[in-house]
Amino acid sequence: MALLTVLLVIVLYPLYFILIASVSDPLDVNGGRVRLLPVAFTLEGYRSLVGNGAIWRGYGNTLLYMAVGTTVNVAVTLTGAYPLSRKDLLGRNAVMMLFTFTMFFSGGIVPTYLLVKSLGMLDSMWAVILPGAVSVWNLVMARTFFQHYIPEELREAAVMDGCSDFVFFAKVALPLSKAIVAVLALFYAVAHWNSFFGALIYFRDESKYPLQLILRNMLIRGEVQETLNLELGGGSPAAESIKYGAIVIASLPVLALYPFVQKHFVKGVRLGALKG
């Protein structure tokens, strides 16, 4: 218990520090005087972020990309994993080898960009959704779930009652697969929420930027000093306050999502250990 307590403190303290640093005076944060409690409490960093219209636009874009992307990801992954879990599917091992091959080798950024461009998806949300529509790891995890938790005898009984493969998948397999659906939705949603590299490559219209890319531009390119100069005076210490506030704001939706799928999370991680 003592060891686990120490590990808990090691993991939680950086998160706690980000929270108290976001409401402390930037000069005290830079001076190392913020350790356990906020010093010179201030909400200037949050006021600056909330007052920036680009933040809210990025929030809306990211929520849209996350909702549509997660729906596409889960739908494609489940409809791909179920047939691959069936022993009567010819060539399923060869198909899985092709999927597994892509986990270690890819065409690279330039060929992928040229493909997306040739399909006319530049500056479209589909450019950040379709190229990564399937995660092979999640596909393997879903296939393993179907193999171990959807008995073959159940399908045989359904077939005897005149149930087709499509009907069995939609009305029997999916209702029994809420755990894996929740885990897949969580994994894909978090990936979409944290993603910015695809938007950085494929988007030119700043009105379509996701939140993470907007925060990146504000912090790395110094746009925060240009857009908020009247409020912050352009000093470098203020950027520290905004940096910590941006981390908190960007993390809130994901933290709010975890409690709803927490009970399925352990089962999903355990399924990933089974490769049969």
Report what the structure shows.
It is a single chain. Among the domains are: 21-50, no CATH class; 56-194 and 264-271, MetI-like (MetI-like fold, Orthogonal Bundle). α1 packs antiparallel against α15 (236-271) and α3 packs across α15. By secondary structure, it is mostly helical. It has helices at 2-22, 26-30, 44-50, 53-85, 92-104, 109-118, 136-149, 152-160, 165-173, 178-194, 197-202, 211-220, 223-227, 229-232, 236-271. It is globular and about 70 Å long. 72% of the residues lie in helices and 0% in strands. Residues 228-235 have low confidence and may be disordered. Residues 97-270 form the ABC transmembrane type-1 domain. This is Carbohydrate ABC transporter permease. Keywords: Cell membrane, Membrane, Transmembrane, Transmembrane helix, Transport.
Please give a handful of descriptors for the protein shown:
transmembrane; transmembrane helix; 276 residues; MetI-like fold; single chain; mainly alpha
List the helices and strands and how they pair.
Layout lengths: L1 H21 L3 H5 L13 H7 L2 H33 L6 H13 L4 H10 L17 H14 L2 H9 L4 H9 L4 H17 L2 H6 L8 H10 L2 H5 L1 H4 L3 H36 L5
Helix pairs in contact: 1-15, 3-15, 4-7, 4-10, 4-12, 7-10, 10-15, 12-15
Beta-strand percent range: under 5%
Arithmetic mean pLDDT: 82
- Oligomeric state of the chains present here: single chain
Q: Report Rg.
A: 23 Å
Assign the CATH superfamily of the domain at 56-194 and 264-271. Answer: MetI-like
Number of strands: 0
